[in-house]
Amino acid sequence: MAFKDLPAHARPREKLIARGAPALADAELLALLLRTGVAGKNVLQLAQELLDHFGGLSGLLQTSAEDLKVIKGMGGDAKRAELIAVLELARRAMAERLKERTVFDSPGTVKQYLQLHIGSRPYEVFAVLFLDAQHRLIVLEELFRGTLTQTSVYPREVVTRALHHQAAAVVLSHNHPSGSIEPSRADESLTQTLRAALSLIDVRVLDHVIVSAGQSYSMAEKGLL
Question: What's the pTM?
Answer without folding.
Answer: 0.73
